[in-house]
Amino acid sequence: MILTPTLTITVPFSPLHFSDQQINVATIRQQLADFGCWSLEQFKQEIAVEQLVLARSHYMDQLLQRLWQYYLFEPQTGFIFNRHRLALIAVGGYGRQELHPLSDIDLLILTDKPLPSEQQPKIEALIQLLWDLGLNVGHSVRTLKTCIAEAKNDLTVMTNLMESRLIVGNPQLLSDLQQTIFSKTIWPSSLFYQAKVEEQQTRHQQYQSSSYKLEPDIKNSPGGLRDIQTINWIGIRHFGRCSAKDLSPFQFLTDEEIDELRTCQRFLWRIRFALHCVVKRYDNRLLFDRQLAIAHLLGYQGQGNVPVEHMMHDYYRVVHAVTELNQMLLQLFSESMLTQHQTQQVYAIDTHFVVRDGLIDITNNQLFIHDSSMIMQLFYTLLTQPKVRGIYSNTIRQLRHARRHVTSLLCEDPKSRAHFLAIIKHPEAVIKALIPMHQLGILAMYIPGWKQIVGLMQFDLFHTYTVDEHTMRVLLELYSFTTIEGQQRHPNSSRLYQQLSKPYLLIIAALFHDIGKGLNGDHSILGAHALQQFCQLHDLPQQDSELAVWLVRQHLLMSVTAQGRDIQDPAVIQAFAQQVQSQQRLQFLLCLTVADVCATNETLWNSWKQSLLRTLYIATDNVLMSDLQHAPRPWSIVKQHKKQAKRLLSQYPIPYEQAKSLWRRYSFDYFLRYSPEQIAWHTVNLLNHDLQKPLVLLRPKPEHGGTELFIYSPDKPFLFASVSHQIGYFNLNIHDALIITTKDDYALDTFIVLEPNGHSVSPDRQPALIQQVEKVLLQTGFKRQRIYRPNTKLRHFAVPTQVNFLAMQRYDKTHMQLITLDRPGLLAYVGEVFTQLQLSLHSAKIVTIGEHVEDLFILTDKEGYPLTDTMCTTLRQLLIDVIDSLDGGRG
Known about the structure:
By secondary structure, the chain is an alpha+beta fold. It folds into four domains: 162 residues, Beta Polymerase, domain 2 (2-Layer Sandwich); 142 residues, Four Helix Bundle (Hemerythrin (Met), subunit A), CATH 1.20.120.330; 186 residues, no CATH class; 218 residues, no CATH class. Helices cover 52% and strands 11% of the residues. The protein contains 36 helices and 17 strands. Strands 9, 10, 11, 12, 13, 14, 15, 16 and 17 form a nine-stranded antiparallel sheet that branches. α5 packs across α6 and α9 runs parallel beside α12. The longest helix has 32 residues. The protein is globular, with a radius of gyration of 33 Å. It starts with 24 loop residues before the first helix and ends in a 7-residue tail after the last helix. About 1% of the residues have low confidence. Keywords: Hydrolase, Magnesium, Multifunctional enzyme, Nucleotidyltransferase, Repeat, Transferase. Its EC number is 2.7.7.59, 3.1.4.-.
């Protein structure tokens, strides 16, 4: 325990004394509520949080002592259960005297021998009362012998008992227990250390080994309170001491590090205390819908989400420090516990660096202060020593010291620049150098502007990580292209990455692609400007510099085009190819785009996005290969599609003349926008169907990922609105829609739909989906039902509705972009507006980015012409009015 203060504040009331009469639960509950209100007021007045958690522990001690006496002492004799020895003991956090407002009350009822069965009701009555009082109680009733046996077999039990503290009862029982617990007969310190380290690693993996999730668990996430407790538990087990300061004589922590760890714990305690005041049930997660209230309670000021951004920036700074200290101390403990009887294996690399038991160390603790360029040489040396697995604890400490005292950027030194360039060109640069450099704060010492993105959050539901953590994950995704796992997950990107002549340019671009965030202006342009200066400083060849800078400036281009534009339109491909200009740029951009998408949010990458990027890449590559000025024309694409579809139909017992007769009903756009495989699929099924009746087809594994829902039906008003509404009713997400009308007014519409987890529609739900869509097609009207699927997080975000009309190379249709807050049933409302204005919808791209959507709709008027300026103005206003009138985001 780092904080073990004496209670210095005065609690204005204490628990009631109980008589022989029945206890009044309502009265005690009210007193507990009064205590909670008093604690909150004290917290608002900035009374030290360690005093408040200690006060709650003392208050709970008094309450339990009086309840214990009421229930368990025999009123005449004062003996306990026929002279059984009995004790009520606090364990866990309560044993440490750390009780936040909603913390569990962990209790051990300890006896010297099993209690008679007639005494059990008293124990049960006491525990039931505690639950009736609204307390979260964790309890166990054990004999001394059972306790010791369970501690031997269970690490969690052992840990809890190490922090045991007597509340009331026989003190000798606790003394006997602790004498065994702290002996060397169970869980020797080396074994306890290894088990706790494994436990921490497992816990970290549950949080993707990241301290920088935007909705962290302040107790269990890496760098959280549990990491501090892990240090303490290992120290207590090995040294039998209870505070970090007690470890100072063993040279595990300097006084400065002890103060830093104490400050970090105090900050995390304040956040946890505020969180427990905001939520009604025990929870340690800083969810979006809680962050603003917590920030205000902690005194952060500003408009909008500024208080949250400032609070979370402080939070990430603290968990980074905790992570560093945790790793350093665990390494020091390892040296003390696991190698104390072994001879340390040491060999020299050069005059500056040695290897100690597989870890690199410096020979002079003043090395980095005397010559800061040695910091970059350290990481370069680490790369050149394949058998070295990491950095020694002493060197970590000296790097932390240098970080505080070196004032100039390392990139200003020519020797550091040379080492940095050598580092990023190394195949293992990401894993062995760049990630550790970031974790130890060295990138902030080297790259201009890096410090401003460290711990920088983005208050939305799209980005899962802080900007710096996201950047590190982009680097890891790029590195994964060289691994077997990455090649299986991203076969196209991996193949291209390994063909790149200078893959390190992607590393540089990744480092700078988001470095402009947090500044005023377009972060892509700002990042490109910063990288331009960086490249000049490092004397990169002009051609390399131009490529890297272009990648940063255009790093969103491919993602926006693939997901938010009609990539079946040759004009869109032509325009994209004009911006890319070369196959080299296209290859680099695809790799960076895939890594960027995957590193933003674990749920973003799916087969549909993969297929979109693949389709865009192949189409653009074909244009670039054939010459930008001689790209395939629409009529030649239609001719090719028909030819390939005819070849596919030859596999079926269908006369081609029947297919030609059917195709005469179709428009030019049908053959332009549907692939040969889709055309053949439609044709086979339609020729085996009564063409006077609607048809619904489902392909669980189409060529483009997701699930393809095809509809053949007489065209009618509200068709798009009613079908999209029915899909929404199944809690499916629409990602793409292609709306084609035959010459005789039949709809040939396709919807690409996915489950919320990004997978194809579950097989057991497919028949019901087809059945319900068929019913919709047979209805003569449309009546929208309310979809009660609200996302409670959405109410904390304000996304003004925007309706933009995009300038495109082809002017035969109007491209409308809708940006607004995501809402269940949104497409149904949009479809109703289109019908109201008698507009024809030809295609829709549905892009959900966290809490908001950026949808694209391709429209004409009822005569098939682009919308006039007047119609665009009317459409914009009607959509804004309808969407903004929705009740709480429910459709």
